[in-house]
Amino acid sequence: MNVIEINKLTKYYGKSRGIVDVSFNVQEGEIFGFIGPNGAGKSTTIRTLLALIYPTRGSAKIFGKDCIIEGAEIRRHIGYLPSEVFYYDNMKVIDLLKYSASFYPNVNHKRIYELAEIMDLDLKRKIDDLSYGNKKKVGIVQGLLHSPKLIILDEPTGGLDPLMQHKFFELIHEENKKGVTVLFSSHILSEVQKICTRVGIIKKGRMVKVEEISTLEHNNYKKFRIEMREQTSADYFNLPGISNLSVDEKAVNFIFNGDINRIIEKLYERKVINLIVEEPSLEEIFMHYYEKEA
Amino acid sequence: MNIYWQELKMSVRTMISWTLGMLLTLLFFMFMFTAVAKDVAIINQIMTKFPPELVRALGLSSLDLSTVLGFYGYVFMFILLVAAVYALKSGISALSEEIRAKTADFLVSKPISRTTIVTAKIMSVVTLVVLQIIIYIGGAFVIIQITANQYFHKPTFLLINLSLFFVELFFVGLGLLLSVIINKIKTVLPIALGIVFGFWILQMLNQSLADHTLAYFTPFAYFDIAKIIETGSYENVYLFSDVVLILVFTVLTYIIYQRKDMPSV
Fold first, then answer.
1. Which CA distances in Å does B66 have to A69, B72, B226, B230?
2. How far apart are CA B159 and CA B225, in angstroms?
């Protein structure tokens, strides 16, 4: 069953492009990663789902109901964590959370304290005095306190330290195990890889691809930078699976997808001064996708 | 109801300070009452030296400053001015404050309709205006009793003060409408001051020129204190246009807010 069905959703802000003909589905119980660089249209899509903005064309359904027409009803079962959290400054954390809870029927108030405990959040402090990371924690508790059936996360991890990120992901995993569907937007590929079952890739307002995360992992992209004692020609690394190859005198840069031993074999015959192997950035993966499609 | 209470909690202090401001303005003027009432003949004589247009513009031609209500009616114009700025500011802030403080996403993503939000906001602003008027009338009554040792017709006094309600609602409505039309309002008070003074100048022109069509364009002309004192009632045409405008502003606010995109933070 599809929890989210997006059909040719298009949003223009005046004349500037938000998203164009975005279509994808999110199935019940999955964690769907929504990735793309800044300004690609992730937030625009999410904000339309929540009826914060209205689509120019197309439609979106959540739980089989139209997001705009039946928005209020749908939102009862959605937990939303925006990328930037802002709350009423002169309220205390607990007051804000209670205010938030008051919008939903049958909220178990114990859940607030449980979540605050997990996220190590001081409920008595004023929102105004909180650091960015702590505000984010308020956002997390606020988004989960009413036990939603669908959690929408818009770049949720910014400002959280690694420990908190870990706790946060555990929390999302636990919710997911209970059957909660998650739409997780991010521009950090490794984050999405860690938690999601499927990903949708968006660029310049259009969906480029929707793919199983296992396929993406199978495509084991690595970014290489090799500095050698002697100058090398580009042909030397002419192997299948290499892309974005550039040679700058003694240094070689490329992205490789395949068995890493092939590269190591090549290097074995050479004097290497420095070798850097990294996860490629999302943009570099995107470039790859675009090249493939072109 | 939760939005309504939240809104009241956040704005009640501001309302009280503005009401105290109104009462202090009144107190300041009423201290001069005994002196003015005694020398009203001299004042009237000085007035004859001024061009009649100016005297009318200042609203001094039709009020008898030697009586409590006449004097109060004159001072009341300034009170009305303060109340109008408060009302316009509250009207503009009600919906736009959420956008300025970037809390609109929080509120609008809750399981409530836009209509519910507008209704709760309007209700809270109106509640505050009503509370303000009650506090003000009570305070004004005490101040007048203390400063002016003179009989005055209490129903007329009440009628003068109740015009606050209609004028404030006009500005609340106008403020709400402006807040949904203008996309990014950075500061509220300067806008509110500017608009209220605009209407005030229009009223001075209206009084000076005694032009009846002009009177429809400024709520300050809707409740002519001298006429209220004279007839003991409001003028129906103006009361009617006030109510119609308030309704128009409100309905447009609902319609426009319903379709509005929340700006991204």
1. 63, 10, 13, 15
2. 9
Distance from the first to the final alpha carbon of chain A: 33
Q: Give contacts of B184 with chain A, Cβ < 8 Å.
A: none
Residue with tokens 């939005």: B3
What is the C-alpha separation between A255 and A221, in angstroms, rounded? 7
Which token pair is A9? 């959703």
Residue B265 lies in a domain: no
Residue of B nearest to A69 (CA): B113
State the residue for tokens 């507008």.
Answer: B118
Dihedral over alpha carbons B235, B237, B242, B247 (to 10 degrees): 140
Backbone angles phi, psi at A238, to 5 degrees: -75, 80
Angle separating helix axes B114-147 and B68-100, nearest 10 degrees? 150
Nearest CB among A13, A103, A142 relative to B112 is that of A103
Span B92-124, pLDDT tens digits: 999 999 988 889 999 999 999 999 999 999 999
Q: Which domain holds residue B219?
A: 2-259
Q: Answer yes or no: do A87 and B105 touch at CB < 8 A.
A: no
Domains of chain A: 2-217 (3.40.50.300), 220-293 (3.30.70.1560)
A294 confidence band (pLDDT: 50, 70, 90): very low
**How far does A211 lie from chain B, in Å, by closest CA?**
28
Which candidate from B2, B259, B261 shows the least CB-CB separation from A102? B2
CA distance B195 to B202: 11
Percent of chain B, pLDDT > 90? Answer: 65
Per-residue pLDDT of B128-176, as tens digits, reads 999 999 999 999 999 999 888 788 899 999 999 999 999 999 999 999 9
| Count of domains forming chain B | 1
Please check whether residue B239 is in contact with residue B222, taking contact to mean a CB–CB distance below 8 angstroms.
Answer: yes
Task: Report the percent of chain A where pLDDT is more than 70.
Answer: 94
Residues 6+ apart with CB under 8 A from A113: A123
Residue type at A256? F
Q: What is the pLDDT of residues A122-176, one digit of tens each?
A: 999 999 999 999 999 999 999 999 999 999 999 888 888 999 999 999 999 999 9
CA dist., res. A208 & res. B84, Å (int): 55
